[in-house]
Specification:
Helix content: 40-55%
Number of strands: 4
Oligomer: single chain
Structural class: mainly alpha
Distance between the termini: 54 Å
Order of helices and strands: HEEHEEHH
Radius of gyration: 21 Å
Low-confidence stretches: 1-11
Strand content: 5-15%
Number of helices: 4
Mean pLDDT: 75
């Protein structure tokens, strides 16, 4: 690893920072506890904000939304492209209906 790969100097001369492209909160929270994590605030544009939060604030904001709802998209049945497209539309409709029902059960008052 070169100096450039290790990251840039930060306020503490004994520490280095490394920017990494984390695509979601689950990835950030799965990093080792030995790594200090600072991420763009989820309510701001990632990469375009100077507002950052630490791992604990991210956990507080994101964990309620990370629980799996247990919905799986089905595998295609047909090899024909047109049939597969129709299957995908039907499966998408079914999954969205399940999501709306789940949101209604949770109290989101969806229609």
């Amino acid at each position: 690893m070169t100096e450039k790969d290790r990251g840039s100097d930060c306020d503490d001369p004994g520490r280095r920072t490394v920017s990494r492209g984390i695509t979601n909160a689950k990835q950030a929270l799965s990093l080792s506890d030995g790594i200090d994590v600072s991420v763009s605030h989820p309510d701001r544009d990632s990469g375009r904000t100077e507002e950052f939060i630490d791992r604990e604030e991210l956990r507080t904001l994101a964990e309620p939304w990370m629980e799996s709802v247990g919905i799986r998209f089905p595998a295609p049945i047909s090899a024909d492209a047109v049939d597969r497209s129709n299957e995908a539309k039907a499966a998408t409709r079914t999954v969205l209906q399940e999501i709306v029902a789940s949101a209604s059960e949770a109290g989101w008052a969806t229609r």
